[in-house]
Design goal:
Length: 276
């Protein structure tokens, strides 16, 4: 990586920390139908508005030792975790989708649009995972607009780059994952919700745009991770076979595994058969 690449990753990572602070608001307010804009953030115990210098991602929580400055009520450690995870995911995404500043103008803008599309997905991934863990729901207010945002960004990038070859896999990926999850939801309603079905379409578009290996590994990983987690809960008697386990977070983690290592993983796996 060049110094410029490193600078971009750092800047995007810091942006992710700031976005993560906002996502804490989204995770708390969207499920209860409150505005994510007003009123300003406040301590849930004493109602005191949080000052800007007490709202610096991660740093403020550490300086205040996880307590409200006004009433000393404890502040959940989840707040800095969400901020840190978002920052790291933004930085990793910037590393994955590196921008070539020497590229022709059209291709340069296309790279930016692709990066924005996956940064957007990173942000809603954190928000949806947090909400699903809390409420076992994936709100339409976040999932449905993602279809439009992601599609517009990826189509625009393809037009600017004069490369339409990735749009067909993206469309097939979105449709295939949506239909597959819909069938599972209809066959086994207790194990798959329609929120998962709607999210699957978005994930399929983003995975398919990066190639078949990314799509296959990203889609399959969700079931592997979710299955391992479910078995672990049963083994440690934290759940039984009838317990409801939110699947959205595993869909999202699986998707990001596909994005980062999907093609390499599939090539490695197929290589095993060539060696046999």
């Amino acid at each position: 990586m060049t110094p410029l690449d490193v600078a971009i990753v750092v800047i995007v990572g810091v942006l992710g920390l700031l976005v993560g602070s906002f996502l804490n608001v989204v995770i708390y307010r969207v499920p209860i139908g409150k505005s994510i804009v007003t009123p300003p953030s406040a301590c849930p115990t004493c109602g005191e508005h949080i000052k800007p210098w007490d709202n610096i991602p991660v740093v403020s929580w550490l300086v205040l030792r996880g307590r409200c400055r006004n009433c000393a009520a404890p502040i959940s450690i989840r707040y800095p975790i969400v901020e840190l995870v978002t920052g790291l995911l933004f930085a990793a995404t910037a590393m994955k989708f590196r921008i070539d500043v020497d590229a022709p103008a059209g291709l340069f803008v296309a790279m930016i649009l692709v990066l924005v599309a996956y940064l957007y997905f990173a942000a809603i991934s954190v928000a949806l995972a947090g909400i699903d863990l809390d409420t076992h729901k994936l709100p339409n207010a976040i999932v449905l607009p993602a279809y439009l945002v992601v599609s517009v960004l990826l189509v625009a990038a393809s037009v600017l780059a004069s490369d339409y070859s990735l749009l067909l896999p993206a469309a097939i990926g979105g449709a295939a994952m949506f239909v597959a999850y819909l069938i599972m939801a209809l066959v086994y309603p207790g194990g798959m919700g329609f929120g998962d079905v709607k999210l699957a379409g978005v994930i399929g578009i983003l995975l398919g745009f990066l190639g078949w290996g990314t799509l296959i590994v990203g889609a399959f990983s969700a079931f592997v991770l979710g299955g391992v987690f479910g078995i672990a809960l049963i083994v440690f008697r934290r759940a039984n076979r009838k317990s409801g386990i939110p699947f959205g977070p595993w869909m999202l983690v699986g998707a990001w595994l596909g994005i980062f290592i999907g093609e390499r993983t599939l090539n490695w796996y197929l290589g095993l058969f060539q060696l046999a």
